[in-house]
Design brief:
CATH topology of the largest domain: Rossmann fold
Low-confidence stretches: 1-18, 77-90
Number of domains: 4
Helix content: 25-40%
CATH class of the largest domain: Alpha Beta
Number of strands: 26
Distance between the termini: 94 Å
Mean pLDDT: 85
Strand content: 25-35%
CATH architecture of the largest domain: 3-Layer(aba) Sandwich
Largest sheet: 6 strands, mixed
CATH superfamily of the largest domain: P-loop containing nucleotide triphosphate hydrolases
């Protein structure tokens, strides 16, 4: 078949049969031909308008990569950078329909640096077409994408062994690749795999069976896509409805608008509202076209309950006899999407359903080797790595396990300060807190302790490079406060590593945990009514903000002890800079690990131009003027 031949596939003008919408993605390693496959599939299916075809032919002559022939990849590679580089960068969504089915396809990038974009496409797909270059076979990125597909709950996979024309349509080569992938898919637990040998450029086995591969007796790609039975929405699944907004147009109507995320519901059925656990019944199912007798998964409706309950966006209305789970700690699979490593203990934002709330990874249980699926130890996740972790959030969330309900079990991780999405997660199960633990009410509280000590408790957080004078100034401040009769405690970076934090090293992950523990201890000392001096390099702003967030307003005073790196190296009181320059100390702040200076510290002490005694006097004067010292 000629590259320019358009086979007659019959009249496609009729309505697509009612087989539902199939959402699928194309993925795989770079240059495996994903965009070309989709473009050729649309072309051979006569789904390209004449003006689109004319523009495609013009663009192929101008920026095409096929030596004068039609470059079908240009149909979906819409970004200028994609056309210039001949790669896919963003996710390109395309809608098309045949007489038998409607489709939404997400053409996703193959480059490792754009794995996050591939994950975006996978998050809503029901089927994945994973392409493999017949010349190269199964690559690491192929395995990574297959692993992500499995983690995102996609149960139907097509392995399209592409560029068969470049290996002379070799059956043995195809079968070897198909067997290798089938074994890997079995390890991943993907239940349905269809392998198809294709040539996206020539159109072999896309719409029509290939005359060049008569040894293949299976379906073409389009035949499989039109007939595959993806898991239908099961009416026996428990009812789930997440509130998007409270609909209150007047005093006589209160409804809760959103989308049914699972099961079905009818008026009169009992429901429970989560996380409050209050029960009611569905009184009405309201739409713009009138009331419904039933709402099923995917329906956007407004529910009216028999009782006026206090609901807000993010609350879940669920079947009373099969409610969702509520927890503030859970285990989940994580895909990390940013060059900045995931650090346990660092505060992030988690968006679960319609709710965004602070949370953290409390422990990385293991990382997943995408080539072998082996579980390996680790403390952090780097860009494009997969792992299994425990997480905690500040307030309880309502969820189902991701394997049971993708809409109820998926979440994203957001950087608190850039608002960038840095990770995607799939909840596996909730973690139960010990049921015998509760806050014990105490008669003597922080305010009573502070009054008896004649002071207002706070944390003076001294941060700066090693050798800047943090500990020296903090020690002088404590001496002056002690002489005035105040009650204090000094937490020093070196001293705590002899006991409380002796198990921690100096990796970024260990430094985050070091500061987390110190912040919790400082909080306890403040609750005891003390003025706490904390002298730590604490190089990362995120952890200093985390420490501040643990305390009440006015209880955390950040003091930037500022001295240039050259001056700190000149002083080098412990000989650490000399060792770091010699390569004997790794991850040393200022040398091979960054220091992030405060952006809005309450006080700046320039110890390069002023004596430690003068700096200490400034701190004490600030405490007195601000009312922290009653005597």
């Amino acid at each position: 078949m000629s590259v320019l031949a358009r086979p007659d596939t019959g009249d496609l003008s009729g309505q697509a049969a009612d087989r539902g919408m199939l959402r699928f993605i194309t993925c795989g390693s770079v240059d495996d031909g994903k965009s070309t496959l989709i473009g050729r599939l649309l072309y051979d299916s006569k789904l390209i308008m004449d003006d689109q075809l004319a523009r495609l032919e013009t663009d192929s002559m101008r920026v095409g990569t096929t030596g004068g022939g039609i470059d079908f990849a240009l149909l979906v590679d819409g970004l200028q950078a994609e056309r210039e580089q001949g790669i896919t960068i963003d996710v390109a969504y395309r809608f098309f329909a045949t007489p038998r089915r409607k489709f939404v396809v997400a053409d996703t990038p193959g480059h490792e640096q754009y794995t996050r974009n591939m994950a975006t496409g996978a998050s809503t797909a029901q089927l994945a077409v994973i392409l493999v270059d017949a010349r190269k076979g199964i690559l690491t990125q192929t395995r990574r994408h297959a692993t992500i597909v499995a983690r995102f709950g996609i149960r139907h996979v097509v392995l399209a062994v592409n560029k068969m024309d470049l290996v002379s349509f070799d059956q043995t080569r195809y079968e070897r690749i198909a067997e290798e992938f089938a074994a890997f898919a079995n390890q991943l637990g993907i239940p349905h795999v269809q392998c198809i040998p294709v040539s996206a450029l020539l159109g072999d086995n896309l719409v029509e069976p290939s005359a060049n591969m008569s040894w293949y007796q299976g379906p073409t790609l389009l035949q499989h896509l039109e007939t595959v039975e993806v898991a239908a929405d099961d009416a026996s699944d428990p009812f789930r409805f997440r509130v998007q907004w409270v609909n209150r147009p007047n005093q006589d109507f209160r409804g809760y608008s959103g989308t049914v995320l699972g099961g079905r519901v009818r008026p009169g059925e009992p429901v429970v509202v989560l996380p409050s656990m209050r029960e009611s019944r569905v009184a009405r199912i309201v739409t713009m076209d009138g009331d419904l007798s039933e709402a099923v998964r995917g329906d956007s409706v407004t529910l009216v309950l028999a009782d006026e309950l206090d609901l807000s966006a993010g609350d879940v209305i669920a079947a009373a006899d099969r409610p969702a789970q509520v927890t503030d700690q859970f285990a989940a699979h994580l895909l990390w999407m940013t060059p900045d490593a995931m650090l346990p203990g660092r505060k992030y934002l988690l968006r679960v359903g319609g709710v965004t709330l602070p949370g953290e990874v409390t422990e990385l249980k293991y990382k997943i080797n995408v080539n072998t699926l082996e579980h390996t130890a680790g403390k952090t996740l780097e860009l494009n790595e997969l792992g299994f972790a425990n997480l905690a959030v500040d307030h309880p969330i309502t969820f189902d396990a991701y394997d049971e309900n993708r809409d109820m079990g998926g979440f994203i991780v957001i950087d608190r300060f850039t608002n960038a999405t840095v990770g995607a997660g799939m909840i596996a199960f909730g973690l139960r807190r010990a049921t015998n633990l509760a806050w014990h009410a105490l008669d003597v509280d922080k305010a009573a302790r502070a009054r008896s000590l004649g002071q207002k408790p706070c944390v003076l957080w001294f941060t700066g490079l090693s050798g800047s004078g943090k500990s020296t100034v903090a020690n002088l401040v404590e001496k002056r406060l002690h002489a005035l009769g105040h009650h204090t405690y000094l937490l020093d970076g070196d001293n705590v590593r002899h006991g409380l934090n002796k198990d921690l090293g100096f990796t970024q992950a260990d430094r985050v945990e070091n500061i987390r523990r110190i912040a919790e201890v400082a909080k306890l000392f403040v609750d005891a009514g003390l003025i706490v001096m904390a002298a730590f390099i604490s190089p990362f702003r995120a952890e200093r903000r985390m420490a501040r967030a643990l305390l009440e307003p006015g209880e955390f005073i950040e003091i930037f002890v500022d001295a240039p790196l050259a001056e700190c190296e000149r002083r080098d009181p412990k000989g650490l800079y000399q060792k770091a320059r010699a390569g004997k100390i790794l991850n040393f702040t200022g040398i091979d690990s960054p220091y992030e200076p405060p952006e809005a510290a309450e006080m700046l002490l320039d110890t390069a131009t002023s004596a430690p005694e003068a700096a200490a006097d400034r701190v004490v004067a600030m405490l007195r003027d601000a009312g922290y010292l009653d005597r």
